[in-house]
Amino acid sequence: MAADETYPDGLQYHSEHDWARIDGDEATLGVTWFAQDALGELVHYEPPEEGAEIAKGSSYGEVESVKAVSDLIAPLSGVIVEINQKVVAEPETVNDDPYGEGWLVRIRLSDASEAEDLMDAGAYKSFVAEQ
Amino acid sequence: MQTLLRTPLYERHRALGARMVPFAGWEMPIQYEGVIPEHRAVREDCGVFDVSHMGELDVEGPQARALLQSLLSNDLDRVEVGGAQYTLLTNERGGIVDDLIVYRLEGGRYLLVVNASNRDADYEWLKDRERPGSDIRDVSDRYSLLAVQGPRSLERLGLGDAPAFTFEMGEIDGVECVINRTGYTGEAGVELMAMAEDSEQLWDAILARGAKPCGLGARDTLRLEVCYPLHGNDIGPETDAISAGLGWVCALDKEFTGVEELRRIKADGPERKLVAFVMQDAGIPRQGMAIAEGGEVTSGSHSPMLDRGIGMGYVPAEHASPGSTLTIDIRGRERRAEVVPKPIYKREES
After folding, report:
1. pLDDT, tens digit, 9 for 90 and up, residues B1-35
2. Which residue of B has its CA nearest to A39?
3. Please, which of A33, A83, B83, B272 could form a disulfide with B314 given CB 3.0 to 4.6 Å?
4. Which residues, at least 6 apart from A117, have a Cβ–Cβ distance to it below 8 Å?
């Protein structure tokens, strides 16, 4: 079942509808409820490779629903340290639990100060309300 | 600014929370709950589609049969009153102006149900070739068309079995309609043609009988799994019926527009063939993606039943046999697919 609309506190949000959970010098990345709802049930996740460098604001992979493809935009720069293989095998996990089991990659941050211009949950909620 | 047309069921779709998109000049529901659950409902139980955007052209008069026999690829003489036939409107090059279903009514009258995107072009095509004794009218706005499809569709509608490609007058819960034994999903089912003003009552009755509302998204994945071509994607004015694998709807022993060219292609063997394929690697093929062996993807999507990428495309004849490997360029990544026999999906015989 698809999850209910939520934007948890404690996450940092990017305007391309990606979230980051920062933990020291690492971060976990995923897409927001808004993004998965707009796409519909995901049927494919094209992940980056472990060790790949990703840059804030650039595509690091793709997710696809039956009808549409969407680039995954990195909210922060870093190096991929882990891919969520559960989502590779079962992409619909993102629809079920976008902030939990549906995370996409874990990265080692290359510039922690980049987080400063991401939105908090309140700002992102206002941003989504205008979409 | 272009104004989108709306079917008589527009308010019903909105009330059900459908996602509406522009399609062939119409504002149509692409999905309600989601493409995958809607697709599954049709494969396992029963779904209903509003396809009122499709065009209906009426051809009538003592010369109607002769006119259509000269313009349509299939042999109209094989259709009796109360029967229907899948056929092609062809151009001089053997290309496909449209694919359609012709229904033979009483009194030398025929009804052509055509693709929404080609309604005007078809009408013009026929009108330009009209002859004394044949009268062509676009009657699309008078009717709504609801496709009720799935293994339990007849049971849910309280209908008995009847041969495919036949039709009869009937009623569903008091709403008079023409019950056509046709469809675009590969499942049992009917397409119900009702007067436009009765369409909400008919739609409500069908939903009350347990059909799941389904959008154009599921309609596309369902037809692709069973390899029904979509005009504008897989077939068109620049593609011929033989290369498309539609030789079975071309009566090459009669005279019709483009028949000489089709006979030649058949005799020489087509250089390219429309094949069906299933992805062996991860990834979803999409329309327009290049195939390294030659040609491009004409339709591609995710198959809910196979849980894989599937598609169709024209490839050189030497790569067209089932078992051949194709290489699809998915946004710069080379991904392998295997040519498979049509249809891609077939119900397991029980």
Report:
1. 568 999 999 999 999 999 999 999 999 999 999 99
2. B34
3. B272
4. none
